[in-house]
């Protein structure tokens, strides 16, 4: 159980590094609550449910940008 939790946390941090974005929980405790809701909305949006809400979240969050991992992180 604890090992899977640590593995999942590592996967999340690597994903944020790959996207070039900070994790939501890095700045405040509210992000810890918002993160799971965002993931649930992403999964429902991928299934075609809650399309209007999913579109609004995508519009406000901005486009996902993937960066080249061979290049250093721009600061």
Could you outline the blueprint of secondary structure elements for this entry?
Layout (H helix, E strand, L loop, with lengths): L1 H18 L10 H17 L4 H11 L14
User: The biggest beta sheet, please?
Assistant: none
Shape: globular
- What is the strand tally? 0
Number of domains: 1
Helix-strand pattern, N to C? HHH
Radius of gyration: 14 Å
Q: Provide the structure class.
A: mainly alpha
Distance between the termini: 36 Å
User: Beta-strand percentage?
Assistant: under 5%
Question: Helical content, roughly?
Answer: 55-70%
Question: Which stretches are low in confidence, meaning pLDDT under 50 for 5 or more residues running?
Answer: none
Question: Could you characterize the architecture of this molecule?
Answer:
The longest helix is centred in the first third of the chain and has 18 residues, at 2-19. The chain has one domain. The protein is built from three helices and no strands. It is globular, with a radius of gyration of 14 Å. The chain has helices spanning 2-19, 30-46, 51-61. α2 (30-46) crosses α3 (51-61). By secondary structure, it is mainly alpha-helical.
In short:
This protein has helices at residues 2-19, 30-46, 51-61.
Q: What are the defining features of this structure?
A:
single chain, 75 residues, mainly alpha
